[in-house]
Amino acid sequence: MIQVSNLSVWYQAINESVLALDRVSLDIPRGDIITLIGPSGSGKSTFLYVLAGIQRKYAGIVTIDGRPINPKTQRVGMILQNYGLLPWKNVRDNALLGIKIKSGPQELNDYSHYILQQLDIDTLLDRYPKELSGGQRQRVAIARAFIMKPDLLLMDEPFSALDAITREEMQALFLHIWKQNSVTTVFVTHSVDEALYLGSKIVVFSSSPGRVLEIIDNPCFQMEDLRLQDQYHSMSMRLRKILIKD
Question: In Å, what is the CA distance from 89 to each residue of 42, 126, 148?
């Protein structure tokens, strides 16, 4: 369980402190996947950085299973828009990087091979990032996150740089891998469509400073032929109205 209570974060600008998050409270049950949506500058990425243990200066309480955030004892995976791959390492070494940092030198085991096969990159192990397409690079980033068996997976607009067709393929592939592992996941997006497709709950952030406007149980999550359903269109309109009103 991720518990966030009255979280506020300030950044120091040139002559003033800027409030990025304003008293955000949110509970995320173990094994859930939630999507965060809101305008640019609403503090969504800052929220992820707090959960990752990167942003350590904040007011409020943030815990994972009742314990304060501590990247040294908790496994937190992060997948970014720019993939976060090291250009001088091949696919094998990039995929193992997260678990290597946590546990020391690693070789591919049965679980690692399984994840790589599911993502269809097991034949690309000796290639370097510059030799891969955008979709393949993102698959390596997803593999790296799942191979480390994280307690919490954080995703910051990971598919936004991909073309529309590849983006939909990656969304479906990610959801397939996620269902098999049930990793507690927080997924930041600007896309209403993506929020509806990937989130069991949708958290709508306000414009800056970021506040939680609404937390919505998503009836569209895991729905067959989602984009053809009337409920999908009604939920899409509901989300857009919330975002427009803010």
Answer: 34, 9, 17
